[in-house]
Amino acid sequence: MAKAFFRLQKFLRRTQFLLFFLTAAYLMAGSLLLLQRTRLVIQQGSRGTPTNQALPVPEEMSRVGIIEPRTLQSPGPRLLVHMDALQEPALDQQHSPHWLVSRNSELRQLRRRWFHRFTSDQEPLQTAGFKAMKHTAEHKGTYMGCFTHDSRERTLKGAVFYDLRKMTVAHCQEACAERAYSYAGLAYGAECYCGNSLPAAAAKPEECNIECKGEKGSVCGGVSRLSVYGVEELRAPARRGRNVIYRGCFRAPENLTDTFPASLIQPNLTVEMCSEFCSKKEFPLAVIRGQECYCGYPTRRFPLREGTDGLRCSGTRNASSAAGGQDCLVYQTPVQDTRCTDRKFLTTKSKVFVALSSFPGAGNTWARHLIEHATGYYTGSYYFDGALYNKGFKGEKDHWRSRRTICVKTHESGKTEIEMFDSAILLIRNPYKSLMAEFNRKYAGHLGYATDRNWKSKEWPDFVNSYASWWASHVLEWLKYGKRLLVVHYEDLKQSLIPKLKEMVEFLNVTVTEDRLLCVENNRDGNFKRSGAKQKNFEPFTQEMKDLINRYILTVDEALRGRNFSGLPREYVPR
């Protein structure tokens, strides 16, 4: 009996060793196979996309502007475009060349790596887990206490800021003081609210129990709770007038008291006095007519669209007699227009799956800002960009196919990716501007500028060579496979914001008020202007690069006209 048991034990030990050996061999074989496949893909990619392949274009490049439609209807001989070989024979296909299939497959992998370069690993928003903490950190403002917070009926009705990674008490205080508010409130560890009135309902101190995302040991509110600080002492007199912006001289509305909800009559009225008064009343506009000061918003009665001659306002901005009669001076106060800042997810799943498609650097993030504030609904994204999520684009974390967002950002241009959507807004920007914007984003994030060293590096020519063809192929493939398209040019959107935004909102089947659109116009830039030193008269494009890009411009223009869309703006081709 003992002998049989010993044999069984020996067999089991051998079996364990054998299983271990087979498992190790299986893993090694899989690793070798993966490496071999990777090598083959790289070799095939280098052989399958030779550097002298590019889009076919019309031969007539002596023209400076966009070619005429009659020329496009009977195109002449085609050229293949590349930095090193501009006179190779071309493929016969006209608007969607066969080479784009392999080209897009290769570029798709490249751009995904670049897109997620600035994507940060995010910590989940904490709503519990901290006991009541003391306000041990030293802050310049005065702690007023813990108060209840209702996102739908806010007491702090001024500006709102989000930073789901780096929010601190000092950052919130400075942001509110900079905009002339008296109080700063923090909630959920990452949200900052500004206002001039304290919340009415106080809460228990221990209910403000969430640590600030960017500052350990400090409290930034709680779940539906605000940690409120007084920042009146931070508003130095010099700072109060620093962020007041002169909007111009405008014709005064017929009934000022009906148009503006707050007013002040003051002898020797100054811009600072009127701006301070309107800031405390939490209005974004300060309007001066003689000794009268009015506060309010841009409305249909007072849309701020057509200014009058500045000489009609006496040519001075500080004297009490600066404006009178039918004209008035208008100033933008530091207070944010909050009539259009409320956003939410769709309450029911959208029946129409809409894409907001663009080439990188074409203003997709800015367009999302406009759409969200105009419609009141979040936009989604095919990608996850932690930096954008931290700044308040909450649709970034929502699955892109959830249909809980009004539209979905995408830079993809493959047939499969395009046909997933029922319709799309196709945003097109001048390729020269788009390439520079995307290169800036790659090296300095969404709001920074690349350095001189980056522009002078070898990667800039390689970047232009690869991404210029992508700019063209992106438009061509959406024109070919898109089911229902609204083509919007970035330049037209900037120049005629409200008319173009109306088109986009109607395309999304959303009804908005005129006042909400005026609010969007008042907040048109959001937080999306690049910071840092911008080089004046900076020209990073060589003549070879221009020749390459110009040929792509002509090809895209031809394709747009072939689909009965308006052609590209003439400014796209440098003169």
From TrEMBL:
Stored InterPro entries: P-loop_NTPase, Sialate-O-sulfotransferase, Sulfotransferase_dom, WSC_carb-bd
PROSITE patterns for this protein: WSC (PS51212)
The keyword Repeat is assigned to this record: yes
Family membership noted in the UniProt record: Belongs to the WSCD family.
Protein name: WSCD1 protein
Matching Gene3D superfamilies: P-loop containing nucleotide triphosphate hydrolases
Keyword terms of this UniProt record: Repeat
Domain WSC residue range list: 140-232, 243-340
Pfam families the record matches: Sulfotransfer_1, WSC
MF GO annotations: sulfotransferase activity
Keyword Kinase: no
Domain of life: Eukaryota
